[in-house]
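Posting for a labmate who doesn't have an account.
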Amino acid sequence: MLPVDHPLTIYQGDTRTFGIALERNEGTPEDPQLEPIDLTDCQARAQFRYRERGDLIASFDCEILDPPTQGQITVTLSHPEATKVDRDGVWDLEVISPDETVRTWIRGSVTAILEVTR
């Protein structure tokens, strides 16, 4: 399954926090039955780069919320990391399962707005 496309706009230097709920459709496209992804004993990570396969520019902090069976993640780009975002790029979020299987759930373009006050 391909990652969901989710573009972001980042204001350089500003802390940015948002929530993500990972779900899978256990039904059909016509009659969706969304169930949360169980993230028990999983890890999540997200990164920003200027282009795919480019150098790492900034890392997001990812926290899997309790209970992990609800599939919710809080993603934060801290001030020091957001200061590094000085032009447009791409980002994605991966989940690493206990058996070390890696799955990218979300990816997207990033529009950077440059800060004025420093």
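Reply:
Got it, the structure tokens are right above this. The chain has a mean pLDDT of 96.
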